[in-house]
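Two records follow; treat each independently.
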Amino acid sequence: MKRWLALACMSLALPATAEPLTLEQAIERALSSDPRIEERRHFVAAARGTLEEVEGHGAWFVESNSFLALAPQVDGNIFKEGACTPGNCELREDKYEFRGASPWLKVDLALIKPLHTFGKLENYSDAAEANIRIKDQDVQLQRNATVLEVKKAYYGYLAARDGRLVLEDVEKRLQGAIDLVQQWLDEGTGEVKQSDLYALQSGRALVARYQAQSAALERVALDGLKVLTGMARDDTLEVADRRIRPVELPEGDMEALQAQALAQRPEMAQLEAGLAARRALVAANKSSNKPDLYAGIAGTLSYAPERDRLENPYIYDPFNEAGVTPMIGLRWNWKPGVADGKISSAEAELNALIARSSFARAGIPYQVAEQYYQVQGYHEAVQRLEEASRSARRWMIASYTDFEAGLEQAEKIMTAMQAYVLAMTDYLRTTFEYNMHVARLKDAAGMMQ
């Protein structure tokens, strides 16, 4: 029993081995951890806040002004002797004589509800809602860009790793041939010359150089994949694919993909929302010359305790006054020059967006066609290069076997190995390019999620 408990404790203490990461898992991690996507989501939240602000202009709001100041102290009423008697009703004339100061509290308050803005509120709300749709599509655009970056890093790592392994294999065979030639030269056997040894050593040095470059590209791609998936650079990352493979061709002909792009591309949705927003802004600016109809309640309070109050309803005393009333009114802020300028600017931006929309409807199908033709061409090239790399490997192995048996010259094995390296590296590079063109075709056709 104690033994089993000890083994269990040891297993808990051991670090967990990271599972190999598939391309789909890498994309999922990147989409959930990319801060650029989160940034776009915050912009959406800001756009929603703008809509709330616009809608808030149609709700109840308060206009208020209050202050505490000093007012001249006054005793008595409006008559000079404090009263009006027959034959003696002389008004006071001591307004500017200082008798002291009184604290003065003044409060003006109005509770207002807009009733009708003649299109301003409605059009600004439509523009704000369209802006939310634009920002939403920015999130999708960044997601698509992140997917492309993950695929580039993932496929790039596989291609660089496979290239390094190919070069390591060739380097081992070259080293074996060098050792064999050195042995023959030392023993004076075999039909080899010193120049053969130099040629093989030169080939090994070149292979080592390209091997170092492939290893560097491999590390760069792997670190990039770690960054995109939210991992630290010192974390261990292993990919699930054992080698790079060409992906399947996307379904559908070019015309179907072009139609899909015009219907599903985020840019097309942004253009539609942008046009709606600009039209709404043009209408809102045209409505700015119209008044706002409102209703509400207004009140005022003014109080100076060191001044006697006047109760006469025909006399207004700004220092001691109180009142409240319901109201309905029109508020008009008419600036025709400013309004005309805003209308002209909004119409110009709308016309510019219409021109961009026209170009997009022609340019997006071209983007799809460009990637479609690239995919078809690279797909054919991958198939041919796969056949070429297999044949070149057979040639290299046969030449090396013949060389070991003393039936082939060193020059021939160098030629075969060079052909194999060129064919294999070209195959890996073309497969990488093909996979990326497929990814770009899906992006151009609006197929990425």
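The next record belongs to a different protein.
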Amino acid sequence: MIISMENAQDKIELGEYLEQRLQDGLNAVAKLHELDDMTEVDITIVDDEEIHQLNRDYRGVDRPTDVLSFALDEDDEDEPELLEGQLHLLGDIIISAETATRQAEEFGHGLEREIVYLAVHGLLHLLGYDHMVEEDKVIMRAKEEEALR
């Protein structure tokens, strides 16, 4: 899997091993779902102000959130089938470093672990998982835990 990461915020210092841990976590999801090595996902780390604006503009929710996923590949029957070895941009995952920091403290683990969890969660959304109903939430949580192990 090809993973591009951009740190577009300067409020929270990110650990030097974050990028490798993101690679490990997202590659675990890719392996579980047999994604092609040419599948790409872009991750952008932002502040609460930026994610608040995106959440309001795209979801109509007027508050910051922890993670947003923007799929570039909704199941469209008109799209041509991808050939093996062809780059496949799955979508974008936006993570708030400020919200991740608060959640890491709340849950009693490190910031890097929280950001990796949010990235895994975001990638699962890009793959079609959701948690709006309890049955789907249980399935998605199990997939998150499997990838994080």
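Discussion point: Strands lie at 2-7, 39-46, 67-71, 88-96. How would you locate this feature using only the token line?
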